[in-house]
Design brief:
The protein is of the alpha/beta class. It folds into 2 domains: 97 residues, Alpha-Beta Plaits (2-Layer Sandwich), CATH 3.30.70; 105 residues, Rossmann fold (3-Layer(aba) Sandwich), CATH 3.40.50. The protein is 21% helix and 21% strand. The protein has 5 helices and 8 strands; from the N terminus they run E-E-E-E-H-E-H-H-E-H-E-H-E. The protein has a 4-stranded parallel β-sheet with strand order 6-5-7-8. It has a two-stranded antiparallel ribbon with strand order 1-4. It has a two-stranded antiparallel sheet with strand order 2-3. Strand 7, helix 5 and strand 8 form a beta-alpha-beta unit. The longest helix has 14 residues. About 5% of the residues have low confidence.
Length: 239
């Protein structure tokens, strides 16, 4: 099948290994001083590993490859953890830290910022799949591109990120529409005058796909737009 998958340029790879821990599925490994893709079926093609590569050796490309297999990822991660400590990931969680069940009994420290008392949302719809690139609110807009867990995790999302801006949300892990999203975002950026872009995503590795999609769209649009990237912890704080 043809799908997005990581490609490694061994000429550029210096074997630093920074990309390895950013691959939530354990698809990358250092072999003989170079990073290798362990198995095609372990790579989800989201490109969470790309951002840490200092030499640009990693890119996501569309080509014929084995299908991504979440069950195989789960087995791979269980095997990787077995020698060190008991591994108690719930059966539904797969290998991604972003889907691991967690709960904290005490509330996190309250934010020093006052939570907005009313909605700052000024447009509809907000899901990228449903948006019309020619909608009038995109013209001269400050754009917020957010992973769709962010507004639930960050309590002051409306006041901190959304006030006076236009919102685009999606999930890079579950929507399985990366190329479609890149193309639609590219069109939004091309045909409108976008003043700035703020990207907000969760700290889990797979969520960095939000940044990848936004940056690819900006690159394809040929525009030069100021971008700010924010990472939100799962306990609702800006990291």
């Amino acid at each position: 099948m043809k799908r997005n998958i990581i490609r490694i340029d061994e000429e550029k790879c210096n074997g630093c290994g920074l990309c390895v821990p950013d691959c939530a599925e354990g698809a990358l490994k250092i072999v003989n001083g170079k990073v290798k893709l362990v198995k095609e079926s372990l790579c989800d093609g989201l490109g969470a590993c790309i951002g840490r590569c200092p030499t640009g050796a990693l890119v996501v490309e569309e080509r014929e490859a084995d299908a991504f297999d979440e069950e195989e990822v789960k087995r791979n991660m269980e095997k990787a953890h077995a020698p060190h400590q008991p591994f108690h990931r719930p059966a539904h969680a797969g290998g991604c830290p972003g889907s691991m069940a967690m709960q904290w009994g005490n509330k996190p420290k309250a934010s020093t910022q006052e939570v907005a008392g009313s909605s700052a949302l000024a447009q509809w719809p907000v899901q990228l799949k449903l948006l019309n690139p020619r909608a009038p609110y995109f013209q001269d807009a400050d754009l917020v591109i957010a992973a769709d867990c962010v507004p639930f995790s960050y309590p002051n999302f409306h006041a901190r990120f959304l006030k006076g801006k236009v919102l685009v949300i999606f999930c890079p892990k579950l929507d399985h529409a990366n190329e479609e999203y890149i193309e639609k975002l590219t069109e939004i950026l091309k045909i409108n005058t976008i003043k700035s872009i703020s990207i907000a995503h969760m700290e889990v590795p797979c969520c960095s796909g939000t940044t990848y999609i936004a940056e690819e769209a900006l690159k394809k649009s040929g525009k030069n737009i100021t971008v700010k990237d924010y990472t939100i912890s799962i306990q609702g704080e800006i990291i």
